[in-house]
Every structure is written in C-alpha cells, then in structure tokens.
Write a structure and sequence with these properties.
Layout lengths: L24 E3 L5 E3 L4 H36 L15 H17 L7 H11 L11 H4 L3 H32 L7 H4 L2 H25 L4 E3 L5 E3 L10 H31 L7 H7 L13
Antiparallel strand pairs: 1-2, 3-4
Helix pairs in contact: 1-5, 2-3, 5-7, 5-8, 7-8, 7-9
Length: 296
C-alpha cells in the first residue's frame, strides 16, 4: 500500500495495492481476503475426518459392487455383457458431479455474477473441486509451500487411505469364516484397487487439474513482479516458487497428462475383452455407462 491509502480490514495495508491478506485473514477461492474464523483448527480436523470417511465409503462401495458382480455371475453367467450390468457410481451422479465441478470453476471466472443467489450457489459448488480454502487452511497452515504440498498430496493420501481400507476389508473377510468365500476375499487386491482408481479418477480429474495448474497462473503487477492469481500473497519465480516447481511439474505430468493417458491406453489394450468378468471387475467403471455396441 501507500501512505494515505486505506485497505479493507482483512487486507495488509503495508502490501502493494493491498494485495496481501492481513495476518488474521485467509485467501478465499475467489481471491478475496476474509477474516479467519474462530473454529479454523476444528475445520482442519473436519477436513481430515471427511477425507477419511469418504475413503472408507469408497472402499465399502467397491466391496459391495464386487459382491453383486459375483452374485450375478453365479446366477446367470451367460447373461448380457458385464459392461451393461453394474455401475459403481450411477451415471446421473457422476455426470452431476462433473457439472457441479464446472459450476464451481465458473464461480472464479471474471464474470459479474449476481451476488445472491447465483454467486453464493457457485461458491458452494466449488466444494466439489476439493477447494481447501473452504476449510480456511491458510489460518492453520501459514506457510505457502506447506499448503501447496498438502493440496497436491491430498489426492494421493485419499487414494492410499481408500486402498488401505479396501485391503483392511479384504483382510477381515479372509479371516472371518463366513466371509472367506465372498467376492472381497477372493478378488485380487489389484483388481479391487484398480476398480477404485478407475471409478474415482474421472470424477476427480478436474479438481486435480485445478490444484496443479494454479501454480503456473501468474499475473504481473505494477511493481514489475509476477504473483499467483490464486494467492497474490505469493510471488512467482521467487526462491519459494522455484523450490516448489519440481513438485508442480511432477503433479502436472502425473495428474494432468499421465492419468487420462493411462486410462486411454488401458481401455485400448483391453478393447476386445471388455465383457470378461476379470476386465470388468477392474476397469468397468470407465465404460459401464455405455452400451457395448456404441462404446467404440
């Protein structure tokens, strides 16, 4: 800021053009600064608990779906192709989630949305994009580098937790006598985790791209320096930014490029075996919403 220029209460008056948030404020997803809530630490615990419970739910749904596939195979092994039977995530639900994610991205677009109720509704939709600012993480994790590492690592943590819950369910099923012959106990671990990845991967692709690409979205301010659009507190090409660059590049390759490429190559290699139970058990969520005659 400059002498004689007054910033809003949540902004740092010492910063250029009031670009930085005050010490007791955090940067929201729309780029504005808001005062830290009194319950910021419990909100962080809530986020961790939510990730844990969603991972458990995802593992449970995969186990239930495996059981339904096994039951169907026993009842009618020559029935219609597997790709037309069970969907781990209903088609309407998956499409609806992607639609909500896109609405959340529109909330941050440079459009003069009516504040109520359109803008508020779009802000709520941003929760589907794994927006950590909803939980005011800036108030509990002050260091930008740590926050970025957390945002990039959360998807990996979620995948590890979901696979861990899945392996725990499989282990328990193998040790409980009445469940030893169940689908979860007899299905290979890779098939269960593979189904989990092929189910959730397409649903979290937009948030993964958003988390990764915000690191490269910089704007030049009148002082001649570049700052992150998502957080004007942080200067691009600074020492901290350069230290995080390798992590951002790895995330760019793994999340933005490798994930869809892996899905495409896997489906192409198995394109003549999509109706086989073993293939469907692992990769079915990617194509179960399509009729077999129209998939390719």
């Amino acid at each position: 800021g400059r002498a004689g220029v007054e910033c809003a209460p949540a902004y740092d008056p010492a910063s250029l053009m009031c670009r930085s948030c005050a010490s007791n404020a955090f940067r929201f997803s729309d780029g504005t600064c808001r005062k830290c809530p009194a319950m910021s630490l419990p909100m962080l615990y809530l986020f961790v608990g939510s990730v844990t419970m969603v991972a458990l739910a995802a593992a449970g749904v995969v186990g239930c779906t495996a059981r339904m596939i096994e039951r169907d195979e026993r009842a009618a092994p020559e029935a219609m192709p597997q790709s037309e039977r069970y969907k781990l995530v209903p088609h309407a639900l998956s499409v609806g989630l992607v639609y909500i994610q896109i609405l959340g991205l529109l909330a941050d677009a440079p459009v003069n949305w009516p504040k109520t109720p359109v803008r508020d509704a779009l802000r709520v939709a941003n929760a589907a994009n794994i927006d950590l600012s909803i939980f005011a993480t800036d108030c509990t994790i002050k260091d930008f580098a740590t926050r970025y590492l957390v945002s990039v690592g959360v998807p990996l943590l979620f995948a590890a937790m979901a696979c861990g819950w899945m392996m725990g369910l499989k282990f328990c099923a193998q040790w409980v006598r009445c469940f030893r012959k169940s689908a979860v106990a007899q299905t290979p671990a890779w098939s269960l985790c593979g189904r989990l990845v092929f189910t959730l991967g397409p649903l979290v692709y937009i948030p993964l791209c958003r988390i990764t690409l915000v690191f490269f979205d910089c704007t030049r301010l009148p002082d001649g320096n570049y700052y992150l659009d998502a957080n004007l507190n942080e200067q691009c090409f600074s020492a901290t930014w350069m230290k995080l660059l390798p992590v951002a590049l790895v995330a760019l390759v793994a999340y933005v490029l490798a994930l869809p490429t892996f899905f495409a190559v896997t489906l192409w290699r198995n394109r003549h075996r999509l109706s086989e139970p073993a293939v469907f058990a692992r990769y079915g969520p990617m194509y179960s919403s399509y009729r077999s005659t129209y998939f390719w």
